[in-house]
User: What shape does this take?
Amino acid sequence: MHLKNSQTQYGLIARVLHWSSVAMLLTLIVVASQFADKDPGPEKSGLISQHSSIGMLLLILMLARLTWRNLNPNPIHSYSIKTWQKLVAISLHRSIYLIIMTQCVLGILILLTSGEAIHFFGLFELPPLFERAHPIHQTVLGIHYLISVMIYPLFAVHITAAIYHQIFGLIEDH
Assistant: This one.
C-alpha cells in the first residue's frame, strides 16, 4: 500500500487519518455519555476536560484530513458506480467533515463561554472569554447537543453504504 492516494485506492495516510478520527469520535461519545447525567463536581469536570481535549485534537485531525484529501486524488472518481452514487458519497463526506468540524468549534465556544479555563490534556490552559452567565453559552451548548444527535443518521448512511459496497462490490454505470 502506498502512503499517498492513487487514482483507484486510498493510501495509508488517508486510512490512518480516517480510522484515527473514527476512534476519537467513538471515544468522545463514550466520554460524553459518562458525564451527561453526573452532578457537577470534580469527576464530571475531569470527564468534560478529557472530552474537550479530545475534541480539540479531533478538530486538528479533521483539518489535517481535509488538507490531505485536497492534496490527493479522490479514488471515488474511478469507482464503477452510478454517477448519482458518486455525488451522494461526495456530498455525504463533505457533510460529515463540515458537521464534525462545526461540532468541534462549537465545543470550543462552549469552553470559552463557560467561565472556566480551558485545559488541553493538562499541557496548557486558555482563559475563558466570557462569564458563564453569558447568553451565548446556553445557546451554543444546545446547538452542540442537537448536532450530536443529528450526526448519527449521517454516520449510519455512510457505514451502510461502505458495507453495501464491500458486500456487493462496485457496479457498472449505465
